[in-house]
Amino acid sequence: MNRPRKLLTQNREMKAIGVWNWTLPAWAGRLPDGRTYNTCPSAGICAQACYARHGTYTWPVVKAKHEANLTFLLDDPTGWENTMRTELAAPKFRGGWIRIHDSGDFFTDSYLTAWLRICHARPDTKFYCYTKEVDRFRRLVEPDPPRNFLWVYSYGGTQDNALDPDVDRVADVFPRQRRDRRRRMEFPR
Length: 189
Hints:
Elements: H1 12-17, E1 19-22, E2 28-30, E3 36-38, H2 46-49, H3 60-75, H4 77-88, E4 97-100, H5 109-121, E5 126-131, H6 134-140, E6 149-154, E7 170-171
Parallel strand pairs: 1-4, 4-5, 5-6, 6-7
Antiparallel strand pairs: 2-3
């Protein structure tokens, strides 16, 4: 298996604010070995306009990195989790922020649960994400969230009707379509 050398990366903008990133391929596709995937099972209209399906995300080296991340995760979930925990043990991550997914989402219960274990194992690192997996988060995260994990529900998915902008932390990538929704974020993008 071709495992990524490093799991966490930084682009120029994230580096400027000290944020590291973990990413997967956006939405649905086919891996080089022929397997199909859908890393955004609750995507709605956002799948049509997704920034992570255009531009630099389509460059061969970037696409290959995202696919290698997903392949490692799918083929060896325990090895992926252990590797992520080990990488996060480096001093440079203490007190820092990790953005989980600038593309992709928590596509299974077991994958989200692995991230929750990682958050608990690294209490000196802060984690955040945007997600359309409302039901999954209501069941697995909201009852007892790790103190170092923040999330924003993102409009544009199939579970928008379950969101309450007066209660939930929400972001709206299509604000002209929903002028009555508020965008509330309390941590770096």
